[in-house]
Structure formats: C-alpha cells, structure tokens
Amino acid sequence: MRYLLALLLTLTVTIAQAADPRMTFASIDGGDLALDDFAGQPVLVVNTASLCGFAGQLTEMQTLHETYRDAGLVVVAVPSDDFNQELETAQEAKEYCEMTYGLNLPMTTITRVRGAQAHPFYKWVETETGFVPNWNFNKVLLDGQGQIAGTWRAQTRPTSRQLTARIEALLN
Q1: Average of pLDDT values for 142-166?
Q2: What is the CATH code for 23-171?
Q3: For burial by CB atoms within 10 Å, which of 36, 45, 94, 126 has the most?
Q4: From the candidates 45, 49, 52, 61, which is the catalytic residue?
Q5: How many CB atoms lie within 10 A of CB 134?
Q6: Closest to 37 in 3D by CA, of 23, 27, 26
Q7: Which InterPro entries does the entry mention (predicted)?
Q8: What is the spatial distance between Cα 56 and Cα 127, in angstroms, rounded to a whole number?
Q9: Domain segments of the chain as ranges
C-alpha cells in the first residue's frame, strides 16, 4: 500500500510539473516556448504576420518589450499565416522581423490561431472568453497567474493607453 501511495504521489507531482500544452508553443529558435516559464509575470501574446498592413505594430511590440521588460512584462509574437500574410518559412519571418522592425522578443514558429487546427492556447482563449482572432495583430494579455486579463483586436495598438494602462496595473 505504501508503494502505491508513493507511486501515486510521484505521478501527481510529475503531471503537475509538466508544461501545460495550452501554454507551450514551438519556439522560432528551436525547442519550446512555455508561457508557464513566465509565471508571476504578465504576458502579452500577439498573432502577427510579416506582410500585414498592421505589421508596423511590431515596432510597438518591441517598444513595449523594452519599456516594461525590467518590470516583468513578456511580449510574445506568434507568426501566423491564417490570413495568408506571413512569409513562407519561420526562418524568413524571423529574419524579416529582426531586420525590418528590430524585433528581438520571444517568437513562436508559424502557428495556427483559428479554426479546428488552432493552437491549444487559442482554443483555450476562445473557450474562456469567446475571443477568436479575426485578423492579424489580435492581442491576449495574461496576468501573472496565467489567466486572461484582456483581449484586443488589431485596431488597438500595442502602445495604446488602453493596453498599457492594463499592463501597468498588472505590474503594480
């Protein structure tokens, strides 16, 4: 009986320590990008596309990253071709974003953000809030506990007062 209890405790701890698949993306740099690694920090997740008319927001995402990074904010770019505006490969997207916008914040590989093949993060956001990206540059803000603190459409700029006020409230 002791053996079974010890085994059950070990399995429970192992499962609890496993990365939540909703919060784990493939990193553009290889390996995983687990949002759980940023526990205690707010995280802004933005579905991006290099060739979108809103791509200038990448500069603002980088500004947010630089302005609030030391206070704890993490900004994550999620390149997606769901709206047919991303480059062909993740490497091309990464290089383009670095060269054109000076982007050096965490990025995922090219990822589905809507529909049946959407990444589990976006399916979770839809289940929790009804929010589904209807275009590129939709934003999801997570609080330090990994809960959804807000969602915004592409028209809300990353450095808008509406968004930065919510970020600042989470950082204080």
Answers
A1: 97
A2: 3.40.30.10
A3: 45
A4: 52
A5: 10
A6: 23
A7: Glutathione_peroxidase (IPR000889), GPX_AS (IPR029759), Thioredoxin-like_sf (IPR036249)
A8: 30
A9: 23-171
